[in-house]
Amino acid sequence: NGAHGLPLFGCGDWNDGMNRVGEHGRGESVWMGFFLCAVIADFAPLCARRGDADRLARYAAHREKLVAALEDAGWDGAWYRRGYYDDGTPLGSKTSDECRIDALAQSWAVIAGVAPPARARQALGAVERQLVSPEAGLVRLLAPPFVDSAHDPGYIRGYVAGVRENGGQYTHAALWYVRALAEGGRRDRAASVLEMLSPISHTQSAGQVATYQVEPYVIAADVYGVEPHIGRGGWTWYTGSAGWMIRVTLESVLGLREEGGRAYVVQPRIPDDWPGYRARLRRPDGTSYAFAISNPEASAEVVVSAMLDGAPLAIEHGAARVPIAHDGRAHEVVVTLGPGGA
Fold first, then answer.
1. What is the pTM of this model?
2. Would you call 18 helix, strand, or coil by DSSP?
3. Could you tell me if 289 and 331 are in contact, meaning their C-beta atoms sit under 8 angstroms apart?
């Protein structure tokens, strides 16, 4: 870790275009801190199942220190910083002339389950106000773009302002914002931003087609975020963004998440005005599960009842857990949503 107790940035964390933020081995990454918190939390059950108590305790202690550092050196007053340069200057801060805010840190503060509720709301709200453009139908990765800052973040500055990672929409990260909205309780907004990111939403008229200029039936890795190119798509057929579009839609909004091949966790986060939905998941061994989700009270906060092939399932923390049979047969899952706090 660095001077603030945060992971070292190195020559680029997730954003490899920021390859000179920590080139001398002192720069720190706030985003990497949140990501590590999530990885440690996911890895802990494996340690427990293996009976590795020493490793489990060591990882838990490291995560606790990391959370404290993130809430101290990571918080900028209204959103989370992106990190620190080698010389200790904050990146992604209200004091920054360029890259004042970066969506990655805000989204992962929520996804990692680290941000206190009040700060989570502030962080997501800051993205909404500063990075989401409903008119152009995009979510920028950061703003303002890098142009001539005194600090050199790396080759990201070689991109024209508003193109790709340099202040455009990087769809991979925009989808993480949708996931954070869903997991942060903003179900209506999660669904509307997800719809906004769909390539179909960029090609509803001749004018939109002329602006977007790429295929309407595949995901674009990036959408340009600054005039005169604002709204133009780039780098289509990108499997990373397409994969996250599917995962966020299925797991975060529709709320159908597989748990290690043992069970489906059903926890929809759909808008209250959705009557429900149907989905069928087919497994490689021929087993299939047909899900019928209903929202009869127009309040889709939690799962209030669930049935598997006519037998009731237990509800825990507003979600149902459906065991996977691996028997090659077709199964039916009926789930009813309703208001929480009952």
1. 0.95
2. coil
3. yes
